[in-house]
């Protein structure tokens, strides 16, 4: 930024990317080379290998166009056209592009569009492959774009029978085997989630279309629940008072109450809402404040030692 008088000029110091990268130039050069080789092939070789050369040229051209389109789609800003519209544009652009490349390759082999669409062999193949995973994910992706259970940028959690989770043996409340994260992309086969650990998780669209989905887009704060058991010989009133004294210093509200009872122990539930913290981070804070309480318990009476002040 340069100030000159009352005017401010913004100067970009980043070099501009060329319109055509060296990868595109390489692909175009290979395609031109294949076309030159095809033109100079003897007639008998052109008869046997001409279609193969033409299909390779189409694939190279389609790959170059696909690279440019994907580069443009990644730069498509959702804040200009809206997250929902941006998701639809990305998905439909990919669908039309790959369909056009497939038809162009078939045309290079001499297969006409009418025979592709109306041919009995095509119908048989489609019916046979409709139940396969790729076409199931493709159709499910179209459903996700049309019905919009979530958009790119939304934080979601989903529960599905395909992804089970081993439950912990320590006593706790019933938990849902949920997976979740922030939606980063919806392509023809997979939906990409960024988990709280920063790992990209690719979930097949066919699984998400039949899963139970929680969309946390409109939820400004994230709820948390943490339950633990204590010895029944402890005084619950003293323990709750000590817990409240310890946890009131946290920057987010924490509510504590008795949750359950067994012949040897009682359960305490801590719950509330926080902004910007993951459940693991909240659990770390709670444990860091709760461990000293258990360490200060008297070995004989099993009641919390109160501070002198």
UniProtKB/TrEMBL annotation:
Its main location: membrane. Pfam families: MS_channel_2nd. Keywords: Membrane, Transmembrane, Transmembrane helix. One of its GO terms (molecular function) is mechanosensitive monoatomic ion channel activity. The keyword DNA repair does not apply. It comes from the Bacteria. Residues 134-217 form the Mechanosensitive ion channel MscS domain. The keyword Glycosyltransferase does not apply. GO terms for cellular component: membrane. The chain crosses the membrane at residues 20-40, 52-70, 91-111, 117-147. InterPro entries: LSM_dom_sf, MscS_archaea/bacteria_type, MscS_beta-dom_sf, MscS_channel_2nd. It is found in: Membrane. This is Mechanosensitive ion channel family protein. The lineage of its organism: Bacteria, Bacillati, Bacillota, Clostridia, Eubacteriales.
């Amino acid at each position: 930024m340069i100030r000159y008088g009352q005017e401010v000029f913004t100067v970009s110091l980043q070099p501009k990317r060329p319109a055509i990268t060296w990868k595109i130039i390489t692909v175009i050069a290979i395609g031109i080379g294949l076309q030159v080789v095809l033109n100079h092939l003897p007639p008998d070789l052109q008869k046997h290998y001409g279609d193969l050369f033409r299909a390779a040229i189409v694939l190279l051209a389609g790959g170059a166009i696909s690279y440019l389109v994907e580069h443009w789609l990644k730069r498509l800003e959702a804040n200009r056209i809206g997250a929902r519209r941006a998701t639809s544009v990305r998905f439909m652009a990919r669908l039309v592009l790959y369909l056009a490349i497939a038809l162009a390759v078939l045309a290079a082999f001499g297969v006409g569009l009418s025979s592709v669409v109306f041919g009995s062999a095509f119908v048989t193949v489609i019916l046979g492959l409709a139940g396969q995973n790729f076409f199931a994910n493709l159709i499910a992706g179209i459903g996700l774009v049309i019905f919009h259970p979530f958009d790119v940028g939304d934080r979601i959690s989903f529960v599905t029978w395909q992804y089970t989770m081993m439950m912990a043996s320590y006593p706790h409340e019933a938990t849902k085997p949920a997976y979740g994260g922030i939606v980063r992309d919806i392509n023809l086969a997979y939906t990409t989630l960024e988990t709280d650990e920063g790992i990209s998780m690719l979930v097949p669209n066919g699984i998400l279309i039949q899963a139970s989905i929680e969309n946390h887009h409109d939820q400004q704060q994230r709820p948390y629940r943490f339950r633990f058991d204590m010895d029944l010989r402890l005084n619950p009133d003293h323990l709750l008072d000590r817990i409240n004294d310890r946890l009131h210093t946290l920057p987010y509200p924490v509510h504590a109450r008795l949750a359950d009872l067994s012949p040897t122990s009682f359960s305490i539930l801590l719950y509330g809402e926080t902004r910007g913290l993951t459940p693991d981070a909240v659990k770390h804070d709670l444990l860091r404040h709760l461990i000293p309480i258990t360490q200060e318990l008297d070995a004989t009476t099993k009641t919390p030692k109160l501070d002198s002040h």
